[in-house]
Write a structure and sequence with these properties.
2 copies of one chain form a homodimer. Chain A has 11 helices and 10 strands. Chain A is an alpha/beta fold and 271 residues long. In chain A, the strands form 2 sheets. In chain A, strands 4-3-1-2-9-10 form a 6-stranded parallel sheet, with helices on both faces. The first copy, chain A, has 2 domains: 147 residues, Rossmann fold, CATH 3.40.50.1860; 111 residues, Rossmann fold (3-Layer(aba) Sandwich). In chain A, helix 2 crosses helix 3, helix 4 crosses helix 6 and helix 4 crosses helix 10. Helices cover 44% and strands 16% of the residues of chain A. The two termini of chain A are 27 Å apart. Chains A and B meet through helix 7 and helix 8 of A and helix 7 and helix 8 of B.
């Protein structure tokens, strides 16, 4: 079982920020299987029921490939479908919200934490609940930012449109007294520059990707499932699966990874 | 057969602009069945193969309900799947691109026509081909505007972000000499104000919805399938189907229609 791969599942391309953090944290010998449900992306404005149904279909696809653990590299899915996935699958399933919330609790001084994410993630209240398990007296201010994903995918991360959008969504967040802002969507780290400018230097940004990678490593080690060897970014045997054509994923994805994506395959998970 | 309903199929909510034009053009007695594939929306950045597969699934769902004609109220689907749908279905299937292109050809004086739409629509070249059948010497300048759909859905149709986005996408279009601009996506009429400001008063905007409604009416009349009676907007017996939860469709949709949406049902078209 220790030789088995680790599944990384996202609605599309944003989860590559988590893939990258895993690659940098885990031993070289670990093999990652990435699935992006690009035919049905985005999940962020869809209902909880639909997201949960899609999540289960994708998770089953990776489970059939014999993985030893599954990382839900998508905030929306983690927000509304994680307990269901943990019940349904007979392997460790790690989402991004728990680790992200914990990192935010370690970061905040004033115990006022902002969270930005998709409409579905924010509406779920999942971050507020996860933060409350560590800091019951913390105040959480959520803000849905639906345009950040299309901006990141368009590559508009440092222009007038990105700045005006960030100002409209986040302009009044500092008045709420936040000192920490969780980037609660895997696309948002691409906009970290503009987001940081808008909320100012006194607000620390928390990206869940790194925190999640550390939790995955610890969880595997606990269960003696971690491959020995040094961490490293050799990704020769990693595989990528998408549900829509590979072409666009390859183009946009290599921008996320700063490098080419090999071993990419279009598959069908419905049914 | 004359008593049967008319199917109106879109990837989501944008097709309601076409629904509205049909309602205003067709006799009161005509009954419309609207399907929005909201669980898999948007189609505009997906591959031709995936869009064609989804299009066929949705069309079959409406066909099983006994419709007498089908309107493809989505530019992306019309651009890449219309011939396939026309082959597969045994009833008249009308898309929005043919009527929109014809309306543009009637409008242009200088025979230089701009077309804005989703990445998939523009890449398909479907408007340029349809325009060439009427005006072979016209020049067509296409421009993909991926952010316009999320802007329209966010309701940001008249703010700084909308203006900056329109300026980036369309700022240089007038230098190309266009005198006509086709709004080649059913969401874009909501942004017509900002788009019009950006391209200036000398460029006429063409919205395919009205042109499509006229073609549908003529096509039904030709085949003696048109209900008698005056045109009108009574929509009491119309039905709406969506593949994701009805809640968001109801909220955003009533903004598109300036009125409430009754008889709305969530269904499953995968099968």
């Amino acid at each position: 079982m220790r030789d088995a791969g680790i599944g990384v599942f996202d609605s599309g391309i944003g989860g590559l920020t988590v893939y990258k953090a895993l690659r940098e944290t885990l031993p070289v010998g670990e093999r990652l299987l990435y699935l992006g449900d690009t035919a049905r992306v985005p999940y962020g404005a869809k209902s909880d029921e639909t997201v949960a149904r899609y999540a289960l279909e994708g998770a089953r696809f990776l489970e059939r490939r014999g993985i030893k653990a599954l990382v839900i590299a998508c905030n929306t899915m983690s927000a509304v479908a994680l307990p269901e996935l943990q019940r349904a699958l007979k392997l460790p399933v790690v989402g991004v919200i728990g680790p992200g919330a914990e990192a935010a609790c370690r970061t905040t001084k004033r115990r006022v934490i902002g969270v930005v994410g998709t409409a579905t993630t924010i509406k779920s209240g999942a971050y507020a609940r996860a933060i409350a398990t560590h800091l019951p007296d913390a105040r959480v201010v959520g803000r849905a930012c639906p345009l950040f994903v299309p901006l990141a995918e368009e590559g508009w991360v440092d222009n007038e449109v990105a700045r005006a959008t960030a100002a409209l969504y986040l302009g009044d967040l500092t008045a709420e007294g936040i000192d920490t802002l969780v980037l609660g969507c895997t696309h948002y780290p691409l906009l970290a520059g503009v987001i940081g400018e808008t909320v100012g230097p006194d607000v620390r940004l928390v990206d869940s990707a790194r925190a999640t990678a550390a939790v995955v490593k610890a969880r595997l080690a606990e269960r003696a499932l971690l491959d020995d060897g040094a961490p490293g970014t050799v990704a020769g045997s990693d595989q990528f699966f998408v549900t829509d054509s590979a072409e666009r994923f390859r183009a946009v994805g290599s921008r996320f990874l700063d490098g080419p994506i090999d071993r990419l395959e279009q598959i069908d998970i419905q049914g």
